[in-house]
Fold this sequence. Notes:
Elements: H1 3-14, E1 18-25, E2 28-35, E3 51-52, H2 57-70, H3 92-97, H4 100-104, H5 123-130, H6 150-163, H7 167-176, E4 200-202, E5 209-211, H8 222-225, E6 228-229, H9 231-242, H10 256-264, E7 267-268, E8 278-279, E9 284-288, E10 291-299, E11 304-310, E12 315-321, H11 328-338, E13 360-364, E14 367-374, E15 377-383, H12 386-392, E16 397-404, E17 409-412, E18 422-427, E19 436-439, E20 442-445
Antiparallel strand pairs: 1-2, 1-12, 3-6, 4-5, 7-8, 8-9, 9-10, 10-11, 11-12, 13-14, 14-15, 15-16, 16-17, 17-18, 18-19, 19-20
Amino acid sequence: MTTEDRVAALLAEYGIPGAAIGVLRDGRTTEFAVGVKNVGTGGPATTDTVFQIGSMTKTWTALAFLQLVDEGKAALDEPVRTYLPDFAVADPETTAKVTARHLLNHTNGIEESFGDPGEGDDVHERMVAHIAGAPQVFPLGRTHGYSAALGYALLARITEVLDGKCWDDVMRDRLFVPLGLTSTNTRRDRVDRTRAATGHLLRSPAEGPVVTPMDFLPRAFGAGGGITSTVREVLVLAHVLLDDGTAPDGRRIVSAASVREMQRSRVPVPDPYLFGPEWALGLIVCDWHGETVYATDGSTIGQNARLRILPDRNTAVAVLTNGGPRESFARRVFGELLGNVPGLPEPDPARQLDLPRYEGVYERPGARYEVSAEDGRLHLTLDVDPVQAAFLGKPARLKYELLPVSRTHFLMPSADPLEDTQTVAIYDFADGAARYLHTNCRVHPRRGSSTSTPART
């Protein structure tokens, strides 16, 4: 059985309509596609199929900002207000001190309270104007907590001010054109619909994948999740990162020093098992049995993009799909192509925990997790978004058992075979009880906890 045959079998197992997969090794690219772009039309997925790459966009936005650093127009540790004098949030210290580095590595802590900034070219300017009252999820620099839209929207706004053009044009002129990319763009109205993959969701194995009700993310997510691309052109990004900042044709895109800074400026991730133990500047840092691997991943509503960059092997692998689970399929493809890929840890059933320290409600707008102890075990109950619950036929609340891996880390397996096992960190016991819950890279503070004292684990 060929690799393509094995991947096709995995697609069927996971209920994924189609995928495009590419390998860059020692400067040479090989690629293949399997399945269909859309279950309704049955059009085949090809290596020219355009996929939504979601938060992989953040790595592209980071590269554009680092070009400005190379040019001496911006600096990683200069306050945001240097470039955006009207920038302000509710916390005076964050207003005065937050920097591009905080935005790039997701340690800024600002709640994504930017309202509806619309779909125009001024979306980033409007987001900045809307956040004057945005509170802190955690104090500036205290922990890692993923910002899906706002952090990279602020970076995009800085590039707009410094370059005098909207972010879409910044990306085109600084990256897409110099890299010779003809299928990568930021604007949904410029996507060739005849080549575009359609996102799919899976409500039940019997029904099979169904077309997503949401074609694209709102434009507010553009700088953090709005790019569309092909597997071949995603690997051009990987080439830049593997070859010290140069394009496949030898053109300098960013300095070698900036690539090193992207990779080496790191903060710890409270939940190290979903992707990796550290977050760099627009990159995730993974530990594959002692080998450093860089990752940049993204998901939209029904599409997933995963890229692994292995400097020690001068290799990168990209996996783009239009449906299915977010992690387990890609992990198995990486294993097929790269060998021994780390899986999730085993739980420690003998571990004794002081359960009341973990109990409580951890929440922020749009997300609520309740941790409770029952019969000597911890459980987590989450409130499902009502629109999502209705479309997927799920109950309004889902309950999971938390299986301890360590004092602060847990596995959260699901009884639903369509769901990946999730990982959770509950940590920062400065006040006796845990202060934060970290899952899916996002931080949720415990209701009633303070956010102003130094962190201790």
